From TrEMBL:
Gene, per the UniProt record: expl7
Recorded family membership: Belongs to the expansin family. Expansin A subfamily.
Highest taxon listed in the record's lineage: Eukaryota
Species assigned in the record: Cavenderia fasciculata (Slime mold)
Name this protein carries in UniProt: Expansin-like protein
InterPro entries documented for this protein: Expansin/allergen_DPBB_dom, Expansin_CBD_sf, Expansin_CellWall, RlpA-like_sf
Record-linked Gene3D superfamilies: Expansin, cellulose-binding-like domain, Galactose-binding domain-like, RlpA-like domain
Length: 472
């Protein structure tokens, strides 16, 4: 009896895991945390604390995802503090939210998991599609406008994306496709003058080809039915890391003006700051960055909203000139002014170019700002231009397509969601089947992946059984 209890406990542990499985490579997006919990969203789940809600770890997605994501899909998002998983419950477009690159508007609850600055924007968030950490089976609820002539249902608690839903009434010779309403989580079916008879079977198909079904005994409005199980979760994509880093920050920081996502608000002891001085220019540029640093300890702080991952870069380069011969110039991260870089020669009234290696300064894997300071007691005017990071040849290769958003490329249509790659190298791009709402010819691969995943679980159970038996 003890053996049976232990065995059943092991089986439960193996099959009840609710961790998320990576389904794409890591990509780059922008994240803010200002989506109020009072917003129900366009997906139809209702209040965050209602019967069909996905909870408080949710997000609104922008129109870049329109062709590749569905309501209920889950994404792992990485910020400077760590990673969390959110479920898509809403979509926005037009002037409602930024549409220049992948964009997540999360709840404050979710944002607090990845950043300690609730009002900030993370410009270089890492993200990828993952399975949802759900518990229990897929569920379906009749909507309030359902009748025997018009069937309207909401599907929820799915662990991977839903590709399609069909229904077969007792008086229907074949199953009929249900219409997804405006990319939401609701599906409807009707046929002019036809009265569907119950019981009816609803079958849902995942993005990876797995099918689950439930028999609906009647069309009682707002009644919830449970499918026999949830979808089979595919294996993670080949070469996918344990978690994504922050995405690679674009190399250009300042050229005539700041690149998006930078500010100088944390600068200290200064005056006459001009981020677009057209009177003093370098080379063929149109403007330069001008600041008057007041006394020792003053500095210009160039801050990256959402912070940046230093591992992608080996250093920074820039052009500089001063209002006088200046031997107090230094460069440092954060508040590490005691561990700064200093040039071997004085800064003069003529432009000069400099390269600073990060190995010459104390720094962390994630930094918020890089500072240009003055150690002299005397004030000095400083001009800067052509400021940029230098990419490291040993940069991490786990954020594929990290700069895609800044180049206008939609990463969701150029990254693989193939979960079982028989050949090829990690990160090899292939078509995302969600773009066309089909399986892109990979349905058998995904089914094989699910079978292999189940086989792995069975193997684990037998190993655990052997271990248990050997104890007695």
């Amino acid at each position: 009896m003890r053996i049976l209890i232990l065995l059943l406990s092991f089986i439960y542990i193996v099959n009840s895991t609710n961790t998320s499985v990576p389904l794409t490579q890591c990509m780059s997006g922008k994240v803010i945390g200002t989506e109020p919990l009072t917003v129900y969203g366009s997906c139809g789940y209702g209040s965050y604390n209602g019967e069909t809600t996905p909870g408080t770890m949710t997000a609104t997605l922008n129109q870049i995802f329109y062709a590749s994501a569905r309501c209920g899909d889950c994404f792992e998002i990485t910020g400077p503090k760590g990673s969390t998983v959110v479920r898509a419950v809403n979509f926005c477009g037009g002037n409602e939210c930024s549409n220049d690159r992948p964009y997540f508007m999360t709840t404050p609850n979710a944002f607090s998991e990845i950043s300690d600055e609730p009002l900030s924007t993370i410009y270089d968030a890492g993200f990828r599609r993952v399975s949802c950490p759900t518990e229990g089976p897929l569920k379906v609820r009749f909507q309030n406008d359902t009748s025997e002539y018009y069937v309207n249902v909401l599907l929820f608690n799915n662990n991977v994306g839903i590709s399609s839903v069909s229904i077969k009434g007792a008086n229907m010779p074949n199953a009929a496709e249900m219409n997804r309403q405006n990319n939401s989580a609701t599906f409807s079916w009707s046929q002019a003058g036809f009265k569907i008879q119950f019981p009816a079977t609803v079958t849902a198909t995942s993005l990876y080809g797995d099918k689950v079904s439930v028999v609906l005994k009647s069309s009682d409005r707002l009644k919830v039915y449970e499918f026999g199980k949830n979808f089979a979760v595919p294996q993670k994509v080949v070469g996918s890391p344990a978690t994504c880093l922050l995405a690679k920050t674009p190399t250009c920081i300042y050229n005539d003006s700041f690149s998006q996502g930078y500010d100088t608000w944390s600068s200290y002891s200064y005056k006459d700051l001009n981020v677009s001085d057209t009177t003093v220019t370098y080379n063929k540029s149109k403007a330069s960055l001008h600041i008057n640093l007041i006394g020792a300890g003053s500095y210009l702080s160039i801050t990256r909203a959402g912070q940046f991952q230093t591992d992608y870069f080996k250093g920074i380069k820039f052009a500089i000139r001063a209002s006088r011969v200046w031997n107090g110039f230094n460069v440092f991260f954060g508040q590490q002014q005691e561990s700064c870089w200093k040039p071997s020669t004085n800064i003069t009234t003529e432009w000069s170019e400099h390269t600073v290696l990060f190995s010459d300064m104390k720094h962390q894997h994630i930094e918020k700002a890089i500072n240009f300071g003055n150690k002299n007691e005397n004030d000095v005017i400083m001009w800067l231009d052509d400021i940029s990071f230098i990419t490291s040849p040993n940069a991490p290769n786990i954020t594929a397509g990290a700069s895609a958003g800044s180049e206008g490329l939609n990463p969701m249509t150029n990254q693989t969601t193939t979960t079982m790659q028989m050949t090829g190298t990690p990160y090899a791009p292939s078509e995302d089947p969600t773009v066309h709402g089909s399986h892109s010819g990979d349905e058998m691969n995904h089914e094989s992946s699910a079978i292999k995943s189940n086989s792995t679980n069975i193997s684990i159970i037998f190993v655990l059984l052997f271990v248990v038996l050997s104890m007695f």
